[in-house]
Amino acid sequence: MATDWGPVLQTGIGAVAAALGxxxxxxxxxxxxxxxxxxxxxxxxxxxxxxxxALAERMNPAWLxxxxxxxxxxxxxxxxxxxxxVRGKLxxxxxxxxxxxxxxxxxxxxxxxxxxxxxxxVYLEERAKGxxxxxxxxxxxxxxxxxxxxxxxxxxxx
Length: 158
What we know:
The chain is mainly alpha-helical. The protein has helices at 6-58, 72-96, 100-129, 134-157. α1 (6-58) packs antiparallel against α4. The termini are far apart.
């Protein structure tokens, strides 16, 4: 009696095709999920970067004269509070990112951003007292330039 191998062969081919199809679908879905996670991470990073940039722009030396009518504490307190929030988000971003380059830039940016806000506060206090604020203004300008440079590096690293 001869065995009919046709149905056995068809069943084997069908099983292999089903296994390959399942593997391919799982692989494609896995890649899609990774891409979606990367996109979400980039969006969160962009949101944080937007807040950091906005804070830095408020400390732009070209804008400091508009705050002369306000008391230094009144002018800077909201920015100091925003600095705390932004620094927390930067730390969170650094902890979540897989990129060593991004973590390095954030590690450098954090103290420079703090220095920018602090030096702006000192500048405004010296101006309010009627003292010469040239040295403080030079510190604000240097800090602002450094923060802008690091923000550019962070954008490139993201």
